[in-house]
Amino acid sequence: MQSAPDDEELDSLSIRLVGLDENYPVRLNWNDLGVQFSKQSIVVPGDRLTRSREFIPGHGTLRRTVEAGSGNASFAAGRRQKQNDDNAEDNDEDDEDEDEEGAWELAASVAGRQHVVNKLLCVLPGRSRYAGEIGDVVVGRVQEVASRRWRIDANARLQATLHLSGVLLPGEDLRRKSEEDERAMRAVLAEGDLVSAEVQSVQADGSLVLHTRNARYGRLGQGTLVRVPPALIKRSKTHFHSLPCGVTLVLGMNGYCWCGPTPGQSDVREPLASPADRSEVARVRACVRLLAVNHVPLYDTSVMQAYEVARESPVALLSRPDEQLRVARLVAEQLLTAEVGEAQPGGGGFGLHSGDLISGGALSAVH
Amino acid sequence: TRQLLSEPERQYIFDSVQDAVRIDGRQCLAYRQAALRLDLLCYATASAQVSLGETDVLVSVREEDNPGATAQQQGSTGSSASSSSSGPVSVWVDCSCLGSGPEQQQLADEAQAHLSSLYRCLRTPTPVFVDILLLGYDGDLLDAASIAASAALMRALPASLLSAQALPLFATVHRIGSQQIVDANQLEESCSMARVTVGVDSNGRLVACQTCGEGSLQFESMTEMIETGVRKAMMLHDSVAKLVARVL
Amino acid sequence: MTDILLNGRRVDGRRPNEHRLLRAQLGTQPQADGSALLEHGNSRLLATVHGPAQARAADLSPEEDCVLRVLYNKPPFASMTERRRRGRGDRKQDETALLIEEALGGVVLKQLYRRSQIEIRVQVLQSDGSELSAAINAVSLALMDAGVAMRGHLAAVTVGYCDQAPLVDLNSYEQSAGLPSLTVACVGQRVLHASVGARLHSQQLDPLLACASRACACVANQLGQDVKAHLLAACCFQSAA
């Protein structure tokens, strides 16, 4: 299985000639697989969403007064429901004034797909930084060791914080001796270290506070990191997956995914992985990457299916866009077939067929 | 450019290379797939865009009509030809797509120095300007840039000129532990202690040779790396020649 | 000026009110948070967005506002006529970058990105006139790809005046002829930015502005189609809560 492609790899540089008008690299187009979103549900910034009062503005929306004649519009950015609490009073006051002046409407502030949950209307962009939600499992990289806290890059718009009090220490009471704090902190987590953690809270300014007060969280050992758009990570019961091929996969909700060899049962703290293990880790890493570039949602089922489809190919081949498209397409088709088979409207699946949320529903009647 | 990595990650990359299974599953001496797009720019004499993984390089070749302008722009190739019958090849590298920091500037300056030395002996009827724009970076800038520049120069210069002097290509060999690798990505580059870049023409002659890195090399290791580099550069020449035969 | 218009047609065969062909591709640079490749006639620009990310303490103002920075780069091979290499820190490029920053300041919802920084890099691969408006369009698209919140779609166009009538979307030939010209950037009905390219008579201002804002609406519509087509194909998902 490995011999012929090996020689080819070493003896020549594979050069893919791209035509002038050719679209390369080609990525998966869900429309080709029969998934159709209503065109109305896709919006760009400035598009009007609704004039109805019954909807609460969520992410990606903004409220503006309808421009009648030469009236100047006043803009108030829509925030998430939880973060809106501080501003709710201000907005209510504005509302009262606007009631007297004229109508207002909700418009999109990002380019993406409309989504309604109960009365909350938001627009989900295809790519964005991670916003954060309490209880999410994330993978982060330590940027800085400060006094009694670590500053973590969690793919958000602000650095996340991990307090010394939020870490499960191995029994020692490090907090007593304050002079040794900083040295001791670096022994737990140093700059550059990868750590799996949970979001403890989201501050008023949007920054995240993390904690690792659970045995499964903490510093990540040997392995490699893959960065994908956070929107592609499907929320599941667990984000730590021990795959049958001997690879541990951590799918952080913030888009940072970590693949490493599953440590064995031996007493050695960090046994060195075997070449076979490394090959499997490389394969899983390649699968995560190829699913991500082809806009396929990432969860244990999709990664395992990609692994099965790609099992026969040499791992190095999985970095080629043409091969990535082939595997992603097969996985997408399998996922769609499974979804249709389940026939559950709300639960299960990732809502592909229920994506057509807006067109026939409440909003189209509003205009 | 050094990346912020954890010690276990660095160790994993190091050990993986020792086991001859790189992070992306490649063998130690294998190149990534290259994608080549020709004639993208309509204002240049010839242009080529090459991507090796996520390293994306756009090269434009222009022949300068105004002889007066060249005297001011000899720049790093100032030491060569003062005679008017043949002109030098002048190289410019721009990495501003990666940012405006000192690291990107250093990357650009080093690449410019390397590529200028590669084309130092090339003689063209009119002065030629090779402009290299980096659009994305994941390691191995020099090899990708030399392939793109070669492809563009082959389109721009007359065939008679090319048969006389062969266009050289770069091959960069990194040393990680006891293993050599070629076409390192950004992570591997930040784990490598030393690298050797050789410029080789299609006749197998060494045109340029440069070592870089914080680690020191034993003499035997260095000669080994140079030999590997020359072998790999010849392989690149073969592949590029096959492609050119198809296209032209 | 007879060499600009001949029998009602311009040098490239367009009518005075015709904009050149626009085509946008989003997400071309996976390493960036957002990217867009814009083809505008013979012009070709690449804009990339990095962020919103944590701003460095040194860059923050006392009010801790969002830091929005634009880097504009036009390599020597980008234009047909000018072949000279500029040194680093070219003034014209810095000026263009500042103008784009100003225009963006009014459209990006900066209050949502306090203490964050958004860095935008523009590479001009090929230029055939109307550089500033092409750059603004490319940046607008890249910001949409990155999911940065904006009041609306910022679209720009460069218009000129010839034979008592406005010319939409000047190419390099027309721009170098020294026609009175105006670059206008609009969000919906509102004009966010207007800068004069070459000497303009005050009487020419009104008709040019009116023409430009109509043209901006067309540009926004056209580019919006490309954005929506990209989103439809990619099907942005949300993980079910």
Report on the architecture of this protein.
With 367 residues, chain A is α+β, with helices and mostly antiparallel strands. Chain A has 3 domains: 1-39 and 221-345 and 354-367, no CATH class; 46-109, no CATH class; 129-220, Beta Barrel (OB fold (Dihydrolipoamide Acetyltransferase, E2P)). Chain A has 6 helices and 19 strands. In chain A, the strands form 4 sheets. Chain A has a 5-stranded mixed beta barrel with strand order 10-11-12-14-13. In chain A, strands 2-8-9-4 form a 4-stranded mixed sheet, with no helix packed on it. Chain A has a 4-stranded antiparallel sheet with strand order 3-7-5-6. The longest helix of chain A is centred in the C-terminal third of the chain and has 22 residues, at 321-342. The radius of gyration of chain A is 24 Å and the shape is globular. Residues 1-5, 69-101 and 343-367 of chain A have low confidence and may be disordered. By secondary structure, chain B is an alpha+beta fold. Chain B has a single domain (7-63, 89-247), classed as GHMP Kinase, N-terminal domain (Ribosomal Protein S5, domain 2). Chain B is built from 7 helices and 9 strands. In chain B, the strands form 2 sheets. In chain B, strands 1-2-3-5-4 form a 5-stranded mixed sheet. The longest helix of chain C has 33 residues, at 202-234. Residues 236-241 of chain C have low confidence and may be disordered. Chain C is built from 4 helices and 9 strands. Chain C has 241 residues and is an alpha+beta fold. Helix content of chain C is 29%, strand content 29%. In chain C, helix 1 (91-105) packs across helix 2. Chains A and C meet through strand 2 and strand 8 of A and strand 3, helix 2 and helix 4 of C. Chain A: Residues 86-102 have a biased composition (Acidic residues). Chain A: This is S1 motif domain-containing protein. Chain A: Keywords: Exosome, Nucleus, RNA-binding, rRNA processing. Chain A: Residues 67-102 are annotated as: Disordered. Chain A: Residues 135-213 form the S1 motif domain.
